[in-house]
Design brief:
Elements lengths: L1 H6 L4 E6 L10 H11 L7 H10 L10 H18 L2 E6 L6 H13 L5 E5 L23 H11 L6 H11 L3 H6 L6 H6 L9 H14 L3 H12 L5 H10 L6 H7 L3 E3 L3 E3 L2 H10 L2 H14 L6 H11 L5 H18 L1 H13 L4 H18 L2 H14 L3 H19 L4 H12 L4 H18 L9 H9 L10 H15 L1 H17 L4 H17 L3 H18 L2 H17 L3 H18 L6 H10 L2 H18 L2 H18 L2 H11 L8 H14 L3 H13 L6 H13 L3 H15 L5 H17 L3 H18 L2 H13 L17 H11 L4 H8 L3 H15 L7 H4 L4
Helix pairs in contact: 3-4, 4-5, 10-14, 11-13, 11-14, 11-15, 12-15, 15-16, 16-17, 17-18, 18-19, 19-20, 19-21, 20-21, 21-22, 22-23, 23-24, 23-25, 23-27, 24-25, 25-26, 25-27, 26-27, 26-28, 27-28, 28-29, 29-30, 29-31, 30-31, 30-42, 31-32, 31-33, 32-33, 33-34, 33-35, 33-41, 34-35, 35-36, 35-37, 37-38, ...
Length: 868
């Protein structure tokens, strides 16, 4: 890193290092990097500036989204680098706190048009996975010849050839080891080969060398260096104040500076991060506690309360109820500033210092819960094992089971989660009925996602049967309870009987003052309820509200889920461009959060887009991944997409095979859509018995009062009818679909009607229906269905040219999304906030868009990308 800094002579250089003792202190490393930059930083967009200041503890406020903080850091670095290129060097990156690591990794993956270089150094190759997606370079040792030259230049006296070669072999050619090792050897050892360098790992070997040098220093010098190692902020003023409390004078620094181990000027700098590790290693536990206490005593309790309490906790020698309570209060501040992972770290320390067994178990459970929602599933499970051993009553034991089930659901969304959650709900019934009912809802959502891949005893029917037998809540029913009741009745008595409860649930959720946690808790099931009611409008409102709540809360995983559903709705409304654009944001969120759940929107979009090779690869990959996760809903969506794709291509046998597999489960989201695909593909494949059975099942789930449901049923009946009955059913389907936003379904009704009219030899009538279908499909970009309509038009004697590709087809999905947002009047900063890019990267993308569309400014976007 020193070499990198020396080479960056024409650049601004910012250097920080991760510190092992601050692994759990949120944004500790980011504070080192960003605080000096804020002085020369022009104003950022208000949400970004607020998020960054809250994260750094410079302002109070609600919890900022982790990736909004990342965008703020990206924008900050870009603005600083606009004056002069910026090089950011991060040493010992394996010891960055989790919050800083996530943010800086996010920034690194989005550097494109900015004059910023971000370099991370890690000690071991396995640590590289902390920054997945970034280019890596493994630094190897010097060649033997170069190592010999370096040793020869370093050693002033006699150097035995065998000793030299042994040193090279033991150090692996590491330049620092080659420089340091001879300093630890006597002239006799170097000249005569009377000692052998110890075998150790490279970092351990260097640390041992520094330990020996540290032990030779005066005690006050070691005390001063320990204080410097304990406080990684590099604040020289703070260091001297802490030294004063221990009676260490400035003369103590002379020996460390002479040995070139520590430099104290305006900032505190170690020669190498391994020196810091060696200082900690050579100190006794009592000495380390004294250093933490000294740092805490001079840390401002008003300006930096969390760091102060962190040092006090490190100095504790045993349980301390007052200190534990302070840590718990700090957890609340840490969550507001840095999110759940930060809160979990403070709660964990609080639990360790709590003397009361019951309160300790509660705090361990709280820490596990925070780690769960922060995505640290392994840590959560480890804490749950500790909580299980510490539990003092049945309720705490049942909460352990509940959290284990929630971890299973969040981590894999598959086979085990429904069973675990169902078992936890049953245990909780006699302990906390409200918590039990909420757990039944969690189990129902998990069972709906797992579908037929759920483990025995964890199917949706199992969950709702158990929930029905549970006692009612003493404080009255909530919207979630009506959801649970509606699901149960839908399975046991059918959709018509369940409609009142489901309607009450979705209306209550839309009108009620729900907390974000309730939205995330009930959102998926509420969408399922709206679909059961064939209520497209309510489904749209629920999804939009869920996305709004997720955005305002900085909850990116729920936002990705909401965008997934919005892509499905955009495709069903015929806006395939919007569905594609939403996919850019969804993909960005999934990469940022590590979410791996199936993108149903991507599959339905690919099916209707109709590009066979691309769609087939995407669908096959999604089906395999869903099977591996145990995500039955993802597998079902892949079968449905395959059926739609092949019906569009006119491959009815293949469509029938996939459609039949998509309707094997009666009580999952996409079954009713799959039944319509079965009817069409079976009717066209000469399998009327399969079509009749599917139509009967479809009729059973069709509710009165819904144009969507009635139109689907009428179109399906028409396929199996003849003469005036078929004609009447087709007309009803066209009329009803025309009253909905479902343009692809309307176009398919026109297409099927036109095909039937052609076979009835009503060529003029057929031409009218087929041309309408062709125009609709062509306008929305449903290529396979448009080609199917074109072939039918040719059969009735109408000539139709293949549509030329739009100019926008040369744009990538991300470029198209950025262009649409710019066309609609969004600024570069606003576009960057939505896609987690800097404004300069957005500008770079727009220049590429202008070149591809042969325009010179934003004004040309209106003509190049007309609003549909």
């Amino acid at each position: 890193m020193h070499y990198c800094a020396d080479q960056a002579s024409d650049c601004q250089v910012a250097q920080i290092a991760g510190v092992e003792s601050e692994l759990e202190l949120p944004f500790a490393a980011l504070h080192q990097l960003c605080t000096p930059l804020l002085k020369e930083l022009p104003p950022l967009p208000e949400p970004q500036e607020r998020a960054l200041r809250v994260a750094l503890g410079l302002a109070d406020g609600s919890i900022p989204g982790r990736f909004l903080v990342g965008l703020a850091v990206l924008s900050s670095l870009a603005e600083v680098a606009a004056k002069r290129p910026l090089v950011c060097l991060v040493d010992d990156a394996q010891w960055l706190d989790e919050a800083s690591s996530q943010v800086l990794g996010f920034v690194g993956r989005r550097l494109l048009a900015e004059s910023v270089l971000l370099v991370f150094a890690v000690r071991e190759e396995s640590d590289v996975q902390l920054f997945e997606g970034l280019p890596t370079l493994a630094l190897e040792g010097l060649s033997d010849d170069d190592a010999r030259d370096l040793l020869t230049a370093t050693v002033s006296g006699q150097l035995d050839a065998q000793v030299r070669d042994r040193i090279i072999a033991e150090t692996g050619g590491n330049p620092l080891s080659l420089l340091e090792l001879p300093r630890a050897m006597s002239a006799a050892e170097l000249a005569g080969g009377f000692a052998v360098p110890p075998t150790a790992t490279l970092s351990g070997h260097l640390q041992d060398l520094y330990v020996r040098r540290l032990l030779a220093l005066p005690e006050p010098t070691r005390q001063l260096m320990l204080l410097a190692a304990t406080d990684p902020t590099g604040d020289a003023t703070l260091l001297w104040r802490a030294a004063q409390t221990l009676g260490v004078t400035r003369e103590a620094a002379e020996a460390a500076e002479t040995e070139k181990l520590l430099d104290i000027s305006s900032r505190v700098k170690f020669r190498h991060p391994v020196v810091r590790s060696a200082v900690q290693a050579v100190a006794s536990p009592a000495e380390r506690r004294a250093a933490h206490l000294a740092i805490a005593s001079v840390t401002d309790a008003q300006q930096d309360p969390d760091r102060r309490i962190w040092h006090l906790a490190a100095a504790a020698t045993g349980p301390d109820k007052d200190l534990a309570a302070e840590l718990e209060r700090s957890a609340g501040r840490a969550q507001d500033r840095a999110g759940l992972a930060a809160a979990a770290a403070f709660l964990q320390r609080s639990a360790a210092l709590t003397p009361s067994p019951r309160l300790r178990a509660d705090r361990i459970l709280a820490a596990a819960h925070a780690h769960l929602h922060a995505g640290a599933f392994g840590t959560a499970l480890s804490l749950l094992a500790e909580a299980e051993a510490a539990a003092v009553d049945e309720l705490q034991g049942a909460q352990v089971d509940l959290l284990r089930g929630q971890v299973d659901r969040a981590a894999s969304a598959g086979r085990e989660a429904p069973v675990r959650l169902l078992q936890a709900a049953r245990k909780l019934e006699s302990l906390d009925i409200r918590l039990a009912l909420n757990t039944y809802l969690d189990a129902a959502a998990a069972a709906a996602v797992a579908g037929g891949l759920a483990r025995l005893g964890g199917r949706l029917i199992d969950v709702v049967t158990a929930a029905q037998a549970a006692p009612p809540p003493p404080a009255g029913l909530q919207s979630g309870d009506y959801l649970l009741e509606g699901l149960a009745v839908s399975i046991t008595a059918g959709p018509a009987a369940a409609a009142p409860a489901l309607r009450r649930a979705v209306d209550g959720i839309l009108r009620g003052q729900l907390s974000p946690d309730q939205w995330f808790h009930w959102g998926i099931l509420a969408s399922m309820a709206a679909l059961s009611l064939w209520d497209y409008e309510t489904w749209t409102k629920l999804s939009a509200r869920q996305a709004e709540v997720a955005r305002s809360s900085g909850a990116l995983a729920p936002l990705a889920t909401a965008l997934n559903l919005q892509r499905v709705m955009a495709t069903l409304s015929g806006d395939l461009e919007l569905a594609t654009s939403l996919g850019v944001e969804e993909d960005a969120l999934k990469k940022a959060t590590g979410t791996s759940r199936t993108s149903y929107g991507a599959l339905v979009l690919a099916a209707y887009r109709g590009r066979a090779d691309q769609a087939t690869r995407l669908i096959a990959k999604a089906a395999d991944e869903a099977l591996a996760r145990g995500e039955g809903l993802g597998q079902q969506s892949a079968y449905l997409a395959t059926a739609i794709l092949n019906n569009g291509l006119g491959r009815y046998t293949a469509a029938l095979t996939a459609a039949l597999r998509s309707v094997q489960e009666d009580y999952v989201v996409f079954t009713r859509w799959g039944l319509a695909e079965v009817v069409e593909s079976a009717a066209r494949s000469g399998r009327p018995e399969l079509a009749d059975d599917a139509l009967q099942r479809l009729t059973d789930v069709t509710l009165k009062g819904s144009d969507w449901a009635a139109a689907i049923a009428a179109r399906s009946r028409a396929l199996l009818s003849k003469g005036t009955v078929a004609d009447s059913c087709y007309l009803e389907a066209v009329e009803r679909f025309a009253r909905t936003p479902l343009r692809p379904e309307l176009a398919r009704a026109h297409l099927l009607y036109g095909e039937w009219l052609r076979r009835e030899d009503r060529r003029l009538d057929a031409r009218e229906q087929l041309r309408t279908a062709h125009d609709l499909f062509t306008e929305m970009g449903a290529e396979a269905f448009a080609e199917r309509a074109r072939r039918e038009l040719l059969a009735v004697g109408d000539s139709v040219r293949r549509r030329k590709p739009d100019a926008q087809n040369g744009l990538t999905a991300q470029e198209l999304h950025i262009a649409r947002l710019a066309r609609d009047g969004r600024t570069n900063g606003e576009i960057g906030e939505e896609l987690y890019l800097s404004a300069r990267t957005v500008e770079w993308h727009l220049r590429k868009v202008f070149a591809k569309l042969h325009i010179t400014s934003r004004r040309g976007l209106q003509d190049a990308l007309p609003t549909r």
